[in-house]
């Protein structure tokens, strides 16, 4: 049997943390996998040195996951095409705004029997609505694409603290192979036949986290926060089941569902900035500059994208929490309406 | 049509808070309900005066819900039989250790067309296993019994902060009637055809909260906590679906399910005492004395009851989290095993 060769496309905080795991696993399961893993690194200078050179010299992503060694079977590669050469498994873990660019470069260069899995959060906004990233990759490259998402704060996983994740697979044999590639004693993988459900949970939970942050800012107490989280989870499910096919109820019981929603609503930047929005009355744009170094907040952006889709289909009243969160963030609606307009 | 007359059996913190709501609702829906509500109060002396007299004079449960007025259509009654006379709806909200005593007194005195709903948390431990409180009441009194449970901290509801609850009904018409009796603008009621599922969530969530507290004490981070909560919710579901019939997956998406689990795992005494158990290494019994004025912790007690049931059926390995929590609380197992023994 031919062994699988893994290539990782992306090398940020999450990409580096998950590559540490895979690099150990391909060695442990040497009967299934080739030893060496190429990791595509978007080249940049760090202290006047190329990041790829630093990674390959120090076996550490000194910029995005400092303090954690990468196994020495990981090789940082600045050229995308070189990265994927001979690979039979592609792991996509770039920020979602880079997906199209990456796919355009890879188009026509990937064999149709290559397996792929996407760890990317977010949607691709297209004319027809919100397209799952796995579909974008799949259409460009003409390959099956699985998804992985869960309550996975990268640094806690690098610290080898116990956590879980979920893989949505297109066929069960592939799902089991990916499970072997990703699972460790402290990083537990569940697999489920629902690629889109798994990945969209990772995008939509950020909207719910904005809602949780608003409730925190209003100091409305534990009952209210739990209610908003629950309603948010149900609107996530309804949104997915309205606009996509094959979404399973069971997906929401997995790590990608409730667990990730909980983590995002009690920790995480979306909750934090939304709380500050209520407390300081500053607009989100200003808070992004002050609190996130100008990075865009995912939750408010996704709330807007979701609102546009529901509005276009005249369904915004079917999603009262999502719609209210959008209006609070973008339309000047008073934060207090969050619990009034969902009744 | 004959109007319904409501009697409340119980007058603690939660009983008083929910009676405030019902007392307003029976007036608002005067076409369906008689105006006056009897509330059974276990007589005791407060500052040398009878509690029932104080409540009826001040329209406030000065001992268990001080600071919140009870509408004046609520009458505190020290005699149980007098309380339920003429009642067509019984609302049970006594601590679960008093259920049998109450039922024995009421036995033979309740017409079989009386409707009942139980807000009581916990099991009745019998020789055949763990019996839902609604079954106990139903068997004693030969009436249908619905259940109500949710993310409902009593004082937050008395403060009229937004929250949700769930009613498990035996028939939908009755479910809708109870919804009218309990729902307000700020207290939203969902109804579902799953009496036992709703009530047992309220009992089992305390075991999960012990697990969450242990993780907090170990400072294992957000991923781990979310994972333990998720696994806990799934063991709750599995336990119920193994030992009871008619439990619906959908129940766990309601307020009684995920929302109540979340509230209990981030606030609440079970979480707090379990955290202290890890940090101080004192036994639970001692912590109960120090932190709870000697009151018993519900979560550890339920963990033990659940363990005995699963052990008797040789199924304790099917519930690794519940079993590990039991062993940490009662068998001296190291708290760190909480994430090792569930893999």
UniProtKB/TrEMBL annotation, chains A, B:
Q: Identify its protein family.
A: Belongs to the NAD-dependent glycerol-3-phosphate dehydrogenase family.
Q: What is its EC number?
A: 1.1.1.8
| GO biological process terms on file | carbohydrate metabolic process; glycerol-3-phosphate catabolic process
Q: Where is the signal peptide?
A: none
Q: Which Pfam families match?
A: NAD_Gly3P_dh_C (PF07479), NAD_Gly3P_dh_N (PF01210)
The catalytic activity, as recorded, is: sn-glycerol 3-phosphate + NAD(+) = dihydroxyacetone phosphate + NADH + H(+)
Q: Which InterPro entries match?
A: 6-PGluconate_DH-like_C_sf, 6PGD_dom2, G3P_DH_NAD-dep, G3P_DH_NAD-dep_C, G3P_DH_NAD-dep_euk, G3P_DH_NAD-dep_N, NAD(P)-bd_dom_sf
One annotated GO molecular function is: protein homodimerization activity
Annotated organism of origin: Paraglomus brasilianum
Tell me where in this chain the Glycerol-3-phosphate dehydrogenase NAD-dependent C-terminal domain is found.
194-339
- One cellular component GO annotation, for this chain's record? cytosol
> Record-annotated residues binding NAD(+)?
10-15, 42, 98, 154, 269, 296, 298
Question: Which top-level group of life is the source organism from?
Answer: Eukaryota
State the NCBIfam families in the record: glycerol3P_DH
The record places the active site at: 205
Record carries keyword Oxidoreductase: yes
Keyword annotations:
NAD, Oxidoreductase
- Which residues of this UniProt protein bind substrate? 121, 269-270
State what protein this is by name: Glycerol-3-phosphate dehydrogenase [NAD(+)]
> In what residue span(s) does the Glycerol-3-phosphate dehydrogenase NAD-dependent N-terminal domain sit?
6-173
């Amino acid at each position: 049997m031919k062994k699988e060769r893994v290539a990782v496309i992306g090398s940020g905080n999450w990409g580096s943390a998950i590559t540490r795991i895979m690099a150990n696993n391909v060695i442990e399961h040497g009967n299934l996998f080739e030893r060496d893993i190429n990791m595509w690194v978007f080249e940049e200078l760090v202290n006047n040195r190329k990041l790829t050179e630093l990674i390959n010299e120090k076996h550490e992503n000194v910029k995005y996951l400092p303090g954690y060694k990468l196994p020495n079977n990981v090789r940082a590669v600045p050229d995308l095409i070189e990265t994927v050469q001979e690979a039979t498994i592609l792991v996509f873990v770039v920020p979602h705004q880079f997906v199209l660019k990456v796919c355009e470069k890879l188009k026509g260069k990937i064999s149709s029997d290559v397996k792929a899995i996407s760890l990317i959060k977010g949607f691709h906004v297209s004319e027809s609505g919100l397209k799952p990233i796995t579909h974008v990759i799949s259409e460009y490259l003409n390959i099956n694409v699985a998804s992985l998402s869960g309550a996975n704060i990268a640094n806690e996983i690098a610290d080898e603290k116990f956590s879980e994740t979920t893989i949505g697979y297109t066929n069960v044999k592939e799902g089991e192979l990916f499970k072997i590639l990703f699972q460790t004693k402290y990083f537990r993988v569940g697999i489920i036949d629902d690629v889109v459900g798994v990945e969209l949970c990772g995008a939509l939970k950020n909207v719910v986290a904005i809602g949780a942050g608003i409730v925190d800012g209003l100091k409305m107490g534990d009952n209210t926060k739990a209610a908003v989280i629950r309603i948010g989870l149900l609107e996530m499910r309804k949104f997915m089941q309205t606009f996509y096919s094959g979404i399973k109820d069971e997906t929401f019981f997995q790590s990608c569902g409730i667990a990730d929603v909980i983590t995002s609503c009690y920790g995480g930047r979306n909750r934090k900035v939304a709380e500050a929005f209520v407390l300081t009355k500053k607009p989100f744009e200003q808070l992004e500059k002050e609190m996130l170094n100008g990075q865009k907040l995912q939750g408010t952006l996704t709330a807007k994208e979701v609102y546009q889709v529901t509005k276009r289909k005249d369904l915004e009243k079917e999603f009262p929490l999502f719609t209210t969160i959008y209006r609070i963030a973008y339309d000047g609606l008073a934060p207090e309406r969050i619990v009034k307009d969902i009744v």
